[in-house]
Amino acid sequence: KGITAPNPEGQRLAVQRAIEDADIARETISFIEAHGTSTAVGDVAEVNSLKSIFGGLPRNSIGLTSVKSQIGHLKSAAGVAGVVKAAMAVKEKVLPPQINFEKPNHYIKWEETPFYVITEPKEWNRIAPDIPRRCSVSAFGFGGTNFNVVLEEFDRDIYDAWKRSKDSKPEIIPESVPEMQVEPQEEIPVDMEGIRSYLEKEG
Length: 203
Fold this sequence. Notes:
Number of strands: 7
Order of helices and strands: HEHEHHEEEEEHH
Shape: extended
């Protein structure tokens, strides 16, 4: 594979680990800001990687876009651009559209996925009143440098309820590990006179 070839397994792991690190359920994500290079191979690989994580969820439950359709590929700054766009979507509570989109990639079996391409700006409704808006943002680079982050809106009531639930759980204290017994080592004599003599001789 060339250095620019997509790594589907690396992409899957990046998205999966971000969801696990965020400690959320996959079905609470309703918007994905994809890497989306708009290439036949790259887009198929990315959607298939996402399908391996989100597959089985309801049809048209997760909207997809990529900021590259608006500003092009910013190379090393592409991921930052995606995060800024997603953060603005969370702030404004609006699902942003994919511009210049006419027809979907025919190599992708969209009907077997929960994804749809957002073509018009629309109000971003919560999945449930007690679940904040959440999105996944991907940036996949050369040589398999794959990154993903989950963004979530802040809601004081939801946060306070989550914190009370977390604080009410009993703290799990790990079993104590027995202290290691280190046997005393025999002191190794140092020939200080020999060292001093060597240093004086060699200057």
